[in-house]
């Protein structure tokens, strides 16, 4: 096993699948006694070397399972990598006292990781999100007798086998038959070809550059005129407007009344008169925008 371990350090299923498969095929299969000894060492003594040997001796089994999912059009190397993750999870949780072989226990964990990968990558839009939908998805793929649409008898038979209603089977069949549409229209030499990509249905809410420049200039002009009009007010009126409208923490009429030792009504009158002068100086529309 030593030479095989050295080779595995240089190859992975995602890089060179053929070399990876050839390498793991040289790792000997464990006997019942050998597997039980390693499992006991891991379970009772937390022996990590035993865990590594258990994983390595079952890598070929992961490849075998991955090949059964080749019909989904996904890279076999990626499926193997996901299955290896499931194998390691299974080894970590394996209890030798249960009296079953590791391969029987690990198959669930290996397939679970592969299923997650397939559902994440088979379609851009998820076709199965709930546990029941996932079960239906994989069973429907295996039970369909052809690539065409199922007839009523086939739908009924699958619905009875899986314990779901026929409408659910039809819905899942429709999801599986759908095709992802490119966001941008494909390049075509035909100028008359219709453009039906999703990007063509998005409304452009951006403002015309000329309008943006005009708005920016208008805002700058309004601020300049506001500052000029504020200078024409007396110091107390300027301070009242600044604290009431221009400060981050705006003051109340009662706070300003206490500051200037007058009534809140008097502060309101001073504010009203100051605002009136500003409107006359820069215009009501510009004043509303400035504040």
From TrEMBL:
Gene Ontology molecular function: any one: DNA binding
Compartment annotation: Cytoplasm
The UniProt record lists the keyword DNA damage: no
Keywords, sorted A to Z: Coiled coil, Cytoplasm, DNA-binding, Sigma factor, Stress response, Transcription, Transcription regulation
PROSITE patterns assigned to the protein according to its UniProt record, in alphabetical order: SIGMA70_1 (PS00715), SIGMA70_2 (PS00716)
DNA-binding region per Swiss-Prot/TrEMBL record: 253-272
Record domain RNA polymerase sigma-70: where: 78-91, 252-278
Coiled-coil annotated spans: 253-287
Motif Interaction with polymerase core subunit RpoC boundaries: 78-81
CDD domains tied to this protein: Sigma70_r4
Region (Sigma-70 factor domain-2): 54-123
Primary role: Sigma factors are initiation factors that promote the attachment of RNA polymerase to specific initiation sites and are then released. This sigma factor is involved in regulation of expression of heat shock genes.
HAMAP family per UniProt: Sigma70_RpoH
PANTHER family tied to this protein: RNA POLYMERASE SIGMA FACTOR RPOH, SIGMA FACTOR RPOH HEAT SHOCK RELATED
UniProt subunit comment: Interacts with the RNA polymerase core enzyme.
Protein name: RNA polymerase sigma factor RpoH
Gene assigned in the entry: rpoH
